[in-house]
From TrEMBL:
Domain named CBS: residues: 256-317
Statement: the UniProt record of this protein carries the keyword Transferase: no
Protein's name according to its UniProt entry: CBS domain-containing protein
TM helices/strands, residue ranges: none
Keyword tags: CBS domain
Originating species: Brevibacillus brevis (strain 47 / JCM 6285 / NBRC 100599)
Amino acid sequence: MATKHEQILQHIDRLPIGSKISVRQIAKDLDVSEGTAYRAIKEAETQGYVSTIERVGTVRIEKKQKENIERLTFAEVVNIVDGHVQAGREGLHKTLNKFVIGAMQLEAMMRYIDAGSLLIVGNRYQAHKIALQQGAAVLITGGFDTSEEIKQLADRLALPIISSSYDSFTVASMINRAIYDRLIKKEIVMVEDILKPLAETPVLLTSDSVAKWHQYTELYQDTRFPVVDEQMRLIGIVTSKDIIGHEETAIIDKVMTKNPITTSPRVSVASSAHTMVWEGIELLPVVDNHRKLVGVLSRNDVLKALQFTAKQPQMSETFPNLIMSHFREERQADEMVYLGDVSPQMTNHLGTIASGIMTTVMVEAACNLLRHHRRGDMVPENITVYFLKPVQMESHIEVKPRLLDISRRFGKVEVSVFHGDQLVGQAMITAQIIER
């Protein structure tokens, strides 16, 4: 039987898109406490089919598919730009396809606007009206308002009119940054993207016998199975090692490994791979916040995912990528050297390279060196910085990683940083190697 928490989530999932959701109303309709209703609504928001907007409330929105992760709903835009919804609240769940900055003549502007667009513009009432008539939402910058006639039109068409105190350039930058952040997330493969779902996962109950494990091994050609209770909560895991020496009449509950290591759907595959290699496990159960089994992750699944991501074009603008874009790789004799200048963005308030930036450069140089020797992903395990010296802005530095030791699973690198002939930084980095 579903718990009250699950019943609330199911109730919210059945609500029509665009419905307003109230803690008090949910508590009243389902006869639960307001605390229980609040926690369930927050989980629904985490799962992506509810959005809470200041001065509007909580709204049921359409859950975006993974392939559309880079698209934003108008409800999310309100939160990104610290906006205020003036009209058209019924359309906050809709997804914007593109945004257009209205910094041109009206006739030229309208050529770029179509249904699903977001027009970013100041207090140009005629532009507001025509955009709505063409199926686009409106974001008014500079804290300006619009006319009552246009607000009524927005309500009729269920297209939001949002007001923000920021200027058009700032608003466009904020939305663009949010979309780009989603692209980075899209590039990172998550456990939920590759796991074997519960519907395809054979499970054993705690009350089953060892004989059933033997039946499963023949049927599924596997020896590792998660063990659950009647509510599908994960209780343990059973492998051939657990079964050895036990009669077929023995109960699984008595032979299984209890409280196994687990992961959650929203953890990256790289992190889960690190766990599996470090702990030496072949099957990783995936559970939700209530420890209910969602599916399983095998080592083969992880290896295939890492091989796939290795072939994808890198398009993320993460901080390590931005930092290392200032350096070029060169071969000097038998050594690999990274040459670059200290840009203003790398410095602290004193105008010298920030310690975090210097550490990142040394770690990236070490991992790159290890990749030349071992194909795979490098996960830093230990970073020991011996010393750092101040390096002024626009100084030229050389980063020299030196391989000390490497095995199938680990690598150790010493990294030295020079400014001219002077040693300005040195560190020892140990990294775990996850082979693809």
